[in-house]
Amino acid sequence: MFRGPMSMLCSVDTSVIGAGVRRGGVLLKLFGLCVLSGVLVASLMLPAAIGAGAMVNETTSAMSRMSDSLEKARMPLTTEVLDRDGNTIAHFYEDYRVPTSSDRIADTMRAAITAIEDKRFWDHNGVDWQGTMRALATNISSGSVEEGASTITQQYVKNYLVHVAADNKMERHDAQATTIARKLREARLAVELERTMSKDEILTAYLNVVPFGNQTFGVGAAAQTYFGIGPDQLDIQQAALLAAIVNAPGALNPNTNPDAAKARRNEVIERMAEPNNNFRITEEDADRAKKQPLGVLSPLGRPPSSCVSAGGSATNGFFCSYLRDYLNEAGFSDKELERGGYTIHTTMDREATEAAKKAAEAQVPKKSDNIANPMAIVEPGQNSHKVRALVANRDYGNDASKGQTAYNITTEVIPYGSGSVFKIFTAAAAIQQGWNPNDTIPVPSEYTTYEFGHGQKWTVHNAEGVASGRRSLRDALATSPNTGFVWLLEQVGLNNAVDMARKLGLRDSLGRKVDADGESDTDKKITKAKDIKRSRQGSFTLGVTPVSVLELSNVMATIASDGTWCPPTPVESITDRDGEPVEIDEKPCERAIAPRTAHGLAQGLADDHKAGGTSHAAAEAAGWSRPLMAKTGTTQYYQSAVLVGATPQMAGAVMTYTDGPPYDGICVNGSAPPYQCSDTGGNLYGGTIPARTFYPAMKKVHEGLPVKQLPEF
């Protein structure tokens, strides 16, 4: 039987243990620890004692595999999100980590952590038997657990298994359970690691994985969180505080329990000045350091970990939210994004975003009661449609009293239509069938048809101020007569107009699942597009269908791209933690319509901002002078209005709508903010608030870009 210092210590104190039982059993627990230590010693020596049996070989092989994993630790890392210019706009993480190499860890940090956690770190081989015996003697004599014996190597093993290897709560629980089996595994792995890694490698790995509280792991993240500096800049008192927190991150939180944190910090500083430390400080340095305040940042310097609290979330939040949804759709799970350590270069243009945000709020203040004003900007292209801005008068957040919303009103399908904007799809179907923008259509003051529904009579009137009489398709798109487009829809076919809308970009708006009444219902099999066709909804051309602001912008980008549809992408490129490019599974671009149709449509939409067009007043007030294709729309009860527009370089859409009860129509009174005014009326039009938002924003976005003409038909 193995007899050594450990077993002798245990046998010497059994009488004390008996007394301990009478004092409530505290010492009995310590006796258990003593027995556990003996088991560990015996287990660690077992392979040498019994030779290379099958079980030993299997165990040793498993330990080697695990130690190799520990040596090459692939810790969960923070994903960083950048705008098109490389500025950080968001972080995704479960736990905040900043990987730190050995040469970027200050010697003060090495001194602090080894002094308080493992003074003999540089001398033992992974398990400190001398320290274990000393701890047992101290604890038994005091009648309480006052001193631990786990080495930094053992602590690294435990923290790796808990915070890196474990995938769920059960695995994390098992990795830190107080059992002989766990201690045995940790000890064996620690010894194995000491054979394969240098001391500096182990200490660096430990300092990269250990928790420092406040959702912060590793010294690189801790230095930033608590002091806003790099780990190579830590002075004595800062390093000592971080080393102190490791002991009990919750109880020693310097923000919530500063007195306890300072007391523990000063204890660390005193230990740093003791003899035989590899990185010893002087008594004078220790005295000065103990007199210093904690110096912790308030608020902490840890970056936020969600789109709601992302830096600049008022302007970046909607884009960040769309990016995350887009990546989820492309196969990146939230867990992968929060642990993968990716660097995501996005398409977000900060200047365009700020210009659009300013314009949206200028027309509808963020705290306006029940009125939203989102805008999306997309850059056309043959190979991609890059999303440059997603903003609203609302900020992205959870506090409605501050004018915030966590619903992505820039990209989700809004429960209102875009009015006469949908006449674009009827016109596009006509041009595809051979019509010319200069061909004329009849525009009576009243038009009755039996073509739609199930053969019921349907009579349509024009909006106030729209004169009757024949006019060109180009003129009709600028002045927007209802009667003319219902007549045209009869000629080109409802199904063709619906298909055109989907091709040009309303993929989600028309692809969502609906029930028999046309309301959203994911349990049903029919799409909104099929529902419109089945029920013969002639009102489709008048824009009663719920839409997404981003998709409306992408419709214009498709037209500006000679008829090429691409998914509106927020991603420029992605690299992994090693800097290697990561492919993303995006939908491919496709030829939606022929260039001839796109060019004819561009020419047909070229007059809306000119004299007589529905957005002329707003364009003139903003000083707009570039060629532009545009269209406005308003729904029947003035609950929503839209302007869509595009140059060859940039496309955009604005939708002003009522987003809260009582969901009344919206009134506009000069330059004053709009307001809800009636359940049946109002005077909101696409040429008012949406146009007044669109033109100033897009004018700023186009600064410095050459003036380009629309394509000839």
TrEMBL record:
Domain Penicillin-binding protein transpeptidase: 384-639
One Pfam family this sequence matches: Transgly
Keyword Transferase: yes
Domain Glycosyl transferase family: from-to ranges: 86-272
Gene3D superfamilies: Biosynthetic peptidoglycan transglycosylase-like, DD-peptidase/beta-lactamase superfamily
Catalysed reaction, written as an equation: [GlcNAc-(1->4)-Mur2Ac(oyl-L-Ala-gamma-D-Glu-L-Lys-D-Ala-D-Ala)](n)-di-trans,octa-cis-undecaprenyl diphosphate + beta-D-GlcNAc-(1->4)-Mur2Ac(oyl-L-Ala-gamma-D-Glu-L-Lys-D-Ala-D-Ala)-di-trans,octa-cis-undecaprenyl diphosphate = [GlcNAc-(1->4)-Mur2Ac(oyl-L-Ala-gamma-D-Glu-L-Lys-D-Ala-D-Ala)](n+1)-di-trans,octa-cis-undecaprenyl diphosphate + di-trans,octa-cis-undecaprenyl diphosphate + H(+); Preferential cleavage: (Ac)2-L-Lys-D-Ala-|-D-Ala. Also transpeptidation of peptidyl-alanyl moieties that are N-acyl substituents of D-alanine
This protein's UniProt keywords: Carboxypeptidase, Glycosyltransferase, Hydrolase, Membrane, Multifunctional enzyme, Protease, Transferase, Transmembrane, Transmembrane helix
A single cellular component GO annotation: outer membrane-bounded periplasmic space
Membrane-traversing stretches: 30-56
GO MF assignments: penicillin binding; peptidoglycan glycosyltransferase activity; serine-type D-Ala-D-Ala carboxypeptidase activity
PANTHER family the UniProt entry points to: BINDING PROTEIN TRANSPEPTIDASE, PUTATIVE-RELATED (PTHR32282), PEPTIDOGLYCAN GLYCOSYLTRANSFERASE (PTHR32282:SF33)
Protein name: Membrane carboxypeptidase (Penicillin-binding protein)
Organism: Actinopolyspora xinjiangensis
